[in-house]
Amino acid sequence: MGDDAMLAPTRLDRRLHNLDVLRGFALLGILLMNVEFFGRPLADLDAGVDPNQAPFDHALSWLVYVFVQGKFWILFSLLFGMGFALMGERARAAGRNFTAVYLRRSLALLAIGLAHAVLIWSGDILITYAIGALLLLLFRDVTPRAQGAWGAALFGVPALLMIALAMLLLAINAVAGLDEGGLVDGAELARMQAARAAEVAAYAEGSWWQATRMRVDYLLGNIGETLIFEVFALGMFLVGAWLLRSGAIAQPQRHAALYRWLRYGALPVGLAMAVASGSITATFDWVHDSARSMFAAALMLLASPLLSLGYLALVIGALQTTRGQRVFGVLAPAGRMALTNYLVQSLIGTWIFYGYGLGLWGQVPRRWQLLGVLVVFALQVVFSRWWLERFRQGPVEWLWRACTYGRFPPMRPAAAHNP
User: Fold this and answer.
1) How far apart are the C-alpha atoms of 194 and 199, rounded to whole Å?
2) Which of 159, 177, 183, 157 minimizes the C-alpha distance to 291?
3) CA-closest candidate to residue 129, choices 96, 97, 81, 187
């Protein structure tokens, strides 16, 4: 395969349509999660559901927490791992140097992620994906089964250790008759409160420059958390690579047993664990009740990949039917432009909520946030279809490919140049 062929986006008849649909589906979930934190400090990410809401809005937030939060970044991570495996398989079949191309691709994604995190929104996940992409190269020549095993271990073992530690703390408190205690002391609490106040001041009322300085501070101050999160992301990348290389995505009909297990095993177990976690507590008090908060958070962490895999199985199953194709197939164009759409979501969200935009920080009830998500996402689906009828790929995807291969690929389909 020549360089020109490598430069061109994958032909429509060679794309895995299922992946495009799943990316579009994941985009909706990501926005349902992110919209809250366009108008709420990212320091509250570990706080769970905001208790200071009207009952209806609190119920909506609880539902998002149980069914959405933490599930769709995992689905995107599975898809990212599938993309890695797909590129590797095609490069191997064509006799191409996959490592050099993938390194450039990962570094280009890192640059896009840094621009997003500094200039637009601190809740960026692209940096994590770019770093994880580099780590994925260490597992390139591992068998599919071993990739899946490594992935499950990297995600599952830390979550199980958290549950074990939380249960130990709860048992010690019960046996010793101790009051519920926290793992956060007074000094740490003061630091957390100051960080939260700084975010509110910069984003709710500050200029774009003040918000940008805050974004830089947040990026540098959370490097440790990013590296910890990297372990879980890498685990899901590897599980996704296993799913792709096993043939389960391209030929689901040949893996019926796997999909039955995901639909009737992983999904209900994950749902039961998620509901149990949300019932124990959905608002975490790390100052006065750390053990219970840790147990609920760890239980949700363990439930999330099971639910994500269950969602994947439901969508893949639906796509095997004519009706499912009509319902979910409309998401494919948005999935083909996932990177562009993800960045546009951040631009719209920060413009609506931040002080240098419409300034609606903290003023939009949850019900209107979620309704706004549906409207914005519907517009993105329509726009993506319109765009891809005229161009080969999304604008940011085009830039990413240009950075990867060192020259600009054609933007319009070949047919568009014909009289």
Assistant:
1) 9
2) 183
3) 81
- Residue 48 phi, psi (nearest 5): 80, -150
**DSSP SS3 for 283:** strand
Please give the structure tokens belonging to residue 326: 């009509």
Residue 288, CA distances (Å) to 119, 166, 398 in order: 36, 14, 50
350 and 38 Cβ atoms separated by less than 8 Å = yes
In whole angstroms, give the CA distance from residue 28 to residue 9. Answer: 24
pLDDT tens figures, 333-370? 999 999 999 999 999 999 999 999 999 999 999 999 99
> Which residues lie across from 283 on neighbouring strands?
48
Tokens of residue 209, six digits = 């420059």
Residue with tokens 């949700």: 300
Structure tokens at 210: 């003040």
**Alpha carbon distance 269, 306 (integer Å):** 7
Apex 69 CA angle, 238 and 202, nearest 5: 110
Q: In degrees rounded to 5, what are phi and psi of residue 389?
A: -75, -15
Is residue 181's pLDDT more than 60? Answer: no
204-228 confidence digits (pLDDT tens): 999 999 999 999 999 999 999 899 9
Phi, psi of 12 (to 5 degrees): -55, -35
